[in-house]
Each structure stands twice: as C-alpha cells, then as structure tokens.
Amino acid sequence: MDSIDTSAPPEPLLEVHGLTVEFRTRRGVVRAVDDVSFSVQPGERLAIVGESGSGKSTACLAIGGFLPPYAEVTAESMRLDEVDLLARKTSRIPLGTPHLGLVFQDAMTSLDPVWTVGSQLLAALKGKSLRAGVKESKGEALAEARDWLHRVGLTDTERVMKARPDALSGGMRQRVMIALALCGGPELLIADEPTSALDASTSHEVMDLMVEMTETLGAALIIVSHDLKLCQEYTSRMVVMYGGKAVEQAPSIDLDTTARHPYTSALLGCVPTLAKRNVDLLPIIPVNVPRESASVHGQCVFRDRCEFAVAACAVAPPLVDVADRHEAACWVTAGPTDADSRIPETVGSH
Ligand SMILES: Nc1ncnc2c1ncn2[C@@H]1O[C@H](COP(=O)(O)OP(=O)(O)OP(=O)(O)O)[C@@H](O)[C@H]1O
Fold first, then answer.
1. Which of 135, 148, 215, 331 is the most exposed place for a label (fewest CB within 10 A)?
2. 68 lines ligand 1 (CB under 6 A)
3. Which residues form the ABC transporter domain (predicted)?
4. C-alpha to C-alpha distance for 197 and 225, rounded to whole angstroms
C-alpha cells in the first residue's frame, strides 16, 4: 500500500496578509494597494501581473521598505522568513541585505550615476561583511566584486569596474543591478519590470540570468511585469492585480484555461498573436460604468468606450492616453462568471 505523506507543507518564505498602501496626496488619498494577500515558498518563482497603475510596484516597494514616508502601509501581517516586515524601524533597507534583493525597471536611475560600478559593488559587499561580522581585505573584496561581474556575464571586468553606469549599455546596467541585488545572498529577489527597458533578445538573456542565478543561490524570485507571456514562461504561479486588488492567483502554466476573473481573461485576450493582427477591438469586460464618473476635467479619456478600454489599457498603450489613464475615475464593477469567494465583486478602478 502506498504510504500517505503526512508531512506539513513547507513554511512560506514570504507571507503577506491584507496589505494596504495609501498615499496622502494634495488631491486626496490614493489607495494603491487594497487588502492584498499572497505568499511565496522558498525557491519559488512568482509573477505579479497587471496593467500600469494596478499597484504591483507599490506592493513590492512596501515589502522592500522603499516607500516614501507619506505612504501609509498597513497589513494583518507581513513576514519574510523570521523577519516581521511591519516592525522594521527604518523605512529603507539597503540593496543586498541577507533576506531581500531588488532589481528595478530602469537601472540607469536606480544605480548611482556618480559612483563607478566597482565602488557600488564594493559598498554592497562591505555591507554584507559587516552584517556577517567578517573582515574582508581590499584585495579579497575586489576579487569578489570581479567574480560577481563574471557571474552575471560581464567579461570585461576591469573596464566595467571602472565605468560609471552611463558608460554601459542597458543590458550591461541591468546585469550590474542583478549582481548588486544578489551579492548579499538574499533569500528573495524582487525584480520590478526588469526587462521593460530592454529589447526582446536582451530581455530573455536577463530573465534567463535571474532564473539561473536565483536557482543557484536557492533564492525565491518575484517578477513584476505586465508581460503575461514572459511571466508564463519563467514563473510557476501568478498573482493578477487590478485596481490595487489581487483579483486572481493561479498556476502560470494553466492560466489560459483556468482564468476565472473577467479581468484575467481580458488580459490574456490582449496578448498580441499573429492570429489577432487584424483585430481592431480588444476583449471586453462586461461592465457597468456610471457615465458621470467616467468624466475627467469634463472629458472622459475613454469617451463612451470605457468597457473595452478597461482591457485595452492593459497592453495597448496607443489606444488610450497613458498620462490620462491614471486620472480616469471610472469605477467599474464586474461580477465574476463563476461565483467564487476568492474573487471580489468589485474589481476596482482604472
Ligand atoms: N509615490 C506616490 N504618490 C502618490 N501616488 C502614487 C505613488 N506611487 C504610486 N502611486 C499611485 O499608486 C497607484 C499604483 O501605482 P504602481 O506604480 O504601484 O502601479 P504599477 O502596477 O506598478 O504600475 P506600473 O506598471 O506603471 O509601474 C497608481 O495610481 C499610482 O499613481
């Protein structure tokens, strides 16, 4: 007779329960993240997907402790390994902390423009040595910095060490960011739109590199992106965000067939394919949009086509004015096709 595995499932590495983030602005309170819960297992690769403005980056910045002081972060609990992230004393944690590494969208603005790559790597390695209570000689630290550049695929290490970020290509800068984020030996790497500033082939190289390196280190990876196909290829599970809420969580590979929320289906329907090259209209989420609230400064950016703009704004920026998209106060309610308690009836605003 087959034995039944009674061992308890592994403890999640990251657990987020009821995360809410509000920004107090001159124009009022913006609830960017609304009661979001998810977890990440050790070594797991999770994607957080959704259109621009859905709250993906804000949720990750809250986890990393990188939000500005005027952001109000509340949660039932938020824990990374043994660390209570809500109890952090400072609002900032340096890159390369033992638990968490971050790779941002635009390495040009994330790297220090004045310091050389070598100085930035040496500073991160010094932080790691201090935390571990070990003393590394300058020669050892230089050798380790060069080794990290090698590991992320940068071969001309002497030149790269002495270069400032503006002297490197976009792909090289992103590799430097990955080296900086990983050199502290994090258990979790969060990559926020790590490839959006790169061309298609460099994007795949950078994604392959992050996956390979996190696997080698045994670290978990959260990829934040609006590129569903890329996330399906590289992650095992997805959290779909819409209007600040996590409206769906599903295995990445099955998402095409198991998507239950109308927004997820619409997002998937917006992925460009050759078969859809002549299609004018993108998928529609059946919605009930109060016309009066669809007006901003007297003119709705989506005019009388709010219902299809909801889907269109996800992946088709030319169809809507990106700057105005954030301004549109179109509250949209959509009932899920299949009643499911995980799916909130109100899917949010766009
Ligand atoms: N510092 C801030 N102050 C005020 N509002 C903010 C701030 N940062 C983000 N927001 C607002 O919070 C909402 C969520 O933004 P966020 O950047 O998290 O979305 P996103 O899904 O990551 O979008 P993108 O893919 O464009 O980065 C948006 O309405 C945004 O305008």
1. 135
2. yes
3. 16-268
4. 12
- What Å distances lie between residue 39 and 14, 42, 56, 81, CA to CA? 5, 10, 15, 11
Instruction: Tell me the pLDDT tens digit for each residue of 99-119.
Output: 788 888 777 777 888 899 999
All domains in the chain, ordered by first residue: 14-242 (3.40.50.300), 259-349 (no CATH)
Helices 138-151, 117-132: axis angle to 10 degrees equals: 110
Q: Tens digit of pLDDT for each residue in 150-186?
A: 989 888 899 999 999 999 988 899 889 999 988 888 8
Beta strand pairing call for 71-74 and 14-25: antiparallel
Residue nearest to atom 25 of ligand 1 (CA): 52
User: Residues 13, 219: contact at Cβ < 8 Å?
Assistant: no
- What whole-number distance in Å separates Cα of residue 225 and Cα of residue 196? 8
SS3 340: coil
CA distance 95 to 118: 15
**Most distant CA pair in the chain: distance in Å?**
71
Distance CA 113, CA 226 (A): 27
φ, ψ at 25 (rounded to 5°): -115, 170
Q: Which atom of ligand 1 is nearest to the CA of 61?
A: 18
Query: What's the N-to-C CA distance of the chain in angstroms?
Result: 54
Look up the ipTM and state it.
0.96
Backbone angles phi, psi at 289, to 5 degrees: -105, 115
Summary mean pLDDT of the chain: 75
Length of the chain: 350
Contact 41, 73 (CB under 8 A): no
For ligand 1, atom 4, which residue shows the shortest CA distance?
A: 23
The strand pairing partners of 153, in sequence order, are: none
DSSP per-residue letters across 176-222: HHHHHHHTT--SEEEEESTTTTS-HHHHHHHHHHHHHHHHHHT-EEE
**pTM of structure:** 0.76
